[in-house]
Please model this.
Amino acid sequence: MKNIFLCLLVCVFGKVQAQTATFNDQPWLQNFPIIIDPYDGNDLDFPKIKTNMQVVGLLHRASIGMRADEKYLERSVLSNENKLKYASYHLGRKGNPVGQADFYLDIIKNNLNEPMALDIEEIGGNNISLADAEIFIRRIHEKTGKYPLLYINNAVFNAINAKYGRDSEFAKCRLWYARFLKKLPTLSTKVWDKVTIWQFACEINCNPCLIEDTKGHCIKRANRYDANCPYKVTGTDFNMDVNVFNGSIDELLAFWNTYQNP
Model:
């Protein structure tokens, strides 16, 4: 199985392991590996987190636009001390994709052997455009020889599938998909064959909204977990983003190792 994951990184157009019905239906209840993706606004208690054997690592924000995450470096040390896998993501902002890529790589320069990721939060506004995202991805590959994961929600997934195909930079990145459901729907395979990491829980489905603005955005949440929260990670609060990896622990470790320098 390790060879499959090694091939995935470079054989973008080859056959890949199909998405399984088992993973599509509440995989967090079936002992699939859990990864959390914190940023400096989250509180973390590492000794408590590591008591949950299903939680194997962190994908921590390293940068947003041209600003560093204040907790990234400190928590890289804490993760290592607590024997948790560690990786990073960059939250893309509008403009200067090459500058953002170089800035991100400078922040994570001591962790270039760990998975990387680009976060496209939404289409439009202050978010990185799809055209600039391709430039960002290309720059990461030019500088490291590796492709980042791509974190996107369903709206961004649909926008990419409407315009791009297997010849795009996006297709060279493994898919990190945010959808707060108990079961994954059937997804287009125009760009990706499978979801590699599924973000299934955050404040949206773990922390009830008390007040919304006129556009439906939550402006005040309750200070408690929702009863229907699908998964709670000990040592974190109800605003923690929680993800499940599409594979076994051994396959996750093999995936991490694909980012090691030869």
Notes: The longest helix spans residues 130-144. The longest strand covers residues 55-64.
